[in-house]
Amino acid sequence: MKKMFSVLIAAITIFCSVFVASNINNITADESYATTYSVQDMVNLQKFILSELKGEDILDKKYDLNNDGTCNIFDICLMKWRLLNNQNIENNDEVDYLVAYFSRTGNTEKIANHIVNITNADKYEIEAKISYTDEDIQYTNSSCRANQEQNDKTVRPEIAQSIENIDTYEVIFLGYPIWWGEEPRIIDTFLESYDFSDKIIVPFCTSGSSSIKTSENNIKNLGISIDTQMSGRRFSSNATESEVASWIETLDLPTNKEETEAKLNIKIGENLLTATLEDNSSAKALIELLDFEPLTITLNDYANFEKVGTLLENLPRNDEQLDTDFGDIILYQGNKFVIYYDKNSWSFTKLGHIDNITKEELKNILGDDSVEVTLSILK
Ligand SMILES: Cc1cc2nc3c(=O)[nH]c(=O)nc-3n(C[C@H](O)[C@H](O)[C@H](O)COP(=O)(O)O)c2cc1C
Hints:
By secondary structure, this protein is an alpha/beta fold. It has helices spanning 2-23, 39-49, 73-92, 107-119, 145-150, 185-191, 213-220, 241-250, 281-292, 359-366, and strands at residues 97-101, 122-125, 171-177, 196-206, 226-229, 233-235, 263-268, 271-277, 295-302, 306-310, 320-324, 328-332, 336-340, 344-354, 371-378. The strands form two sheets. Strands 7-8-14-12-13-10-9-15 form an eight-stranded antiparallel beta barrel. Strands 1, 2, 3, 4, 5 and 6 form a six-stranded parallel sheet that branches. Flavin mononucleotide is lined by residues 103-109, 137, 139, 146, 177-181, 206-210, 237.
């Protein structure tokens, strides 16, 4: 059986290049393009083809990649292509931002996740070797562990796992909750564990109401070498991603190598428009969706101010009350792609804006009726 497997894989590999090259243009944009496949998926599909797995075993999997109603060798080819494509994208990433954070009840983690979404940073959770129980942080009990630690500036709770390759990061967002007006002592453990002499540290915290100031001074006075300690920021536990993005925009940081200058191409008939994308998780998800291949959708005219069409999958929403104008590209209700050629006000998500175009030019290109647009990503 092993031999048969190897023969099959060899056949697939040869077949892939020929098949993919000749058939890829026939593929319609489909939900499965947003699906990430693993080597295990390839194995599952191979087992299914070899009748080692039954149909019901793969029923809930999106293995019919070319949408022909059956899972066969063609789907393995596409899956392999997709897998290699993803690996290439990952390997090319030169990440130099890190979000390191400690969060006992999840508030700081939410902000950390926003920063990761906005900057494409890597994420590292600072976890205590002996984790903090609910009793440990019961601050109304004067002798709880957290209170004892905060009362003694020399305590250094041990960290469960060290971070690999800290040398690769230039900018480190450092997040923590405020405990008794200060950073939890485990943050001091973290700061004393590595060499930050060539790194930029950007502190951020969550708290009931206390400011970040005392903790910032504590970090400055730790006696460790930090290349640059930027001014930090306190957030409430329910701060939105756009609030966090507005803060990050004010920081004078070197550009993250992973941040992409990706532009959106919009082909309408013979016209090719280019749009600058927003720095939010919705635009990033659109880039991912289009990374695999262009998407053609029909946009219908609505209310004399927009052309709107449906995407095949939902993108993350960053809705806020906005005043749109011509050229704005909007995500509405998570799955409606909208091009504005006139003004409107509503709560939705801005994806980007069409570059260098006048209102009249845009109106002429879009016309009065429905219009077919092909979206692709230019890097
Ligand atoms: C031991 C302890 C002490 C705290 N001290 C303060 C404080 O001095 N000022 C404040 O505004 N909030 C204080 N808080 C509230 C936390 O800062 C706040 O709930 C924070 O968002 C928790 O973050 P996390 O969910 O990431 O752990 C304290 C919480 C604990 C558990």
